[in-house]
Amino acid sequence: xxxxxxxxxxxxxxxxxxxxxxxxxxxxxxxxxxxxxxxxxxxxxxxxxxxxxxxxxxxxxxxxxxxxxxxxxxxxxxxxxxxxxxxxxxxxxxxxxxxxxxxxxxxxxxxxxxxxxxxxxxxxxxxxxxxxxxxxxxxxxxxxxxxxxxxxxxxxxxxxxxxxxxxxxxxxxxxxxxxxxxxxxxxxxxxxxxxxxxxxxxxxxxxxxxxxxxxxxxxxxxxxxxxxxxxxxxxxxxxxxxxxxxxxxxxxxxxxxxxxxxxxxxxxxxxxxxxxxxxxxxxxxxxxxxxxxxxxxxxxxxxxxxxxxxxxxxxxxxxxxxxxxxxxxxxxxxxxxxxxxxxxxxxxxxxxxxxxxxxxxxxxxxxxxxxxxxxxxxxxxxxxxxxxxxxxxxxxxxxxxxxxxxxxxxxxxxxxxxxxxxxxxxxxxxxxxxxxxxxxxxxxxxxxxxxxxxxxxxxxxxxxxxxxxxxxxxxxxxxxxxxxxxxxxxxxxxxxxxxxxxxxxxxxxxxxxxxxxxxxxxxxxxxx
Length: 528
Known about the structure:
Elements: H1 2-7, H2 9-41, H3 45-93, H4 97-100, H5 105-147, H6 149-159, H7 164-168, H8 170-196, H9 198-203, H10 207-260, H11 265-294, H12 296-309, E1 324-332, E2 341-349, E3 353-357, H13 364-371, E4 379-384, E5 387-388, E6 398-401, H14 412-417, H15 425-434, H16 459-473, E7 477-481, H17 489-501, E8 506-510, E9 524-527
Parallel strand pairs: 3-8, 3-9, 6-7, 7-8
Antiparallel strand pairs: 1-2, 1-4, 4-5
């Protein structure tokens, strides 16, 4: 988190400058109040008027500088949070796919909607407030010594007692905060899962059951939130009780000083005002410090994630396959399941067409994941020419088109180019004609929006837009994972013909429904 402090140091310095100025004005207000009272006792009306004008001026200046302090304080917190969100988003984008898929998508969303927001409020905002409170405590303490060294020592000793309470319950505060965040994460995971299976829920009429599950998950969040707030409130209660108890003792001592003639009435008012000025920041510093402690683990975890992935060097230079992809004695199984791939040896030669067939669950898609280095084989090797798959970025060679249509809620053009500016409209129109999407192959229709998940185009059109994207990328190896799934006979024929017409590509098609009469056009068929 230090780098965000450094990058926004000028905003932080500005906030602390106004913190210093507003503190000076606040102290000045207390002294002027005491002077006015002493002057009023002496019945010097003209001097009372002059000091009253000074008092009003100082109050206005204190309010104004406090406004600027708060403005810079919030600007600092928001800018730090903005940079943190950008770094965390970039670090997620730099995850290898095999690392990314270890978590649910909702886990990452939780970080943005909850963890990063907590860091903004509890870390960056509290940090500037803590610095402001330290400045105030320092200068008010100096002013108390100027007023009377005895009352200063007693006040500082008694009022700082509440500061030790958050440290005493540090572990419980952290545990309560982590338990709360964990319950939110679990709740969001469940909600994400239920919403993506909405049709299934309606089809089987299990709304009431899902509602019951939600109640249970929601109660966990509620109970964890109560526990977290309870720990904070107990800490605040103990701090406040100690602070007020100390305040009363100091007030009684100040009254005794007036009785003994050590203080004038005006000095007593100044002392009481200074005690108030010191009491509030000491209570608040305890709460602010408590907030920083509670998010210490969150900050460390986010920071470690960013350091691990943000600056990872990913080679994205496009590569050509020289000879072949070779599978040697490949074995793979998922935990607690039988072997999916056993001693598999095969060679995908450059420029040839391959069909991978097998029953559902036989390991066809798993083999593709191994080729893309999403999974690690239990034993055996995969080579791209003479290089192990673990030592390369397979996307330098490969474009893969999955069974599910991957379309963004954007234009046809942007879905095909994926925002690359290296392609002209003519290139896009040409590739749309190749995949038999002639009705979109003009400049006007390139800007049509396909809707969320391709809702505004048919299933076959969406699949062909994805194929057009792959062709435009011009990778040396094209992998199609169940490209014919969920398509009618007309679209099946179109897509089969498109795939088989591709020249100068290493084509790997995973399908158990490819038309039998066209199988002879593949160079080899691998039965899993």
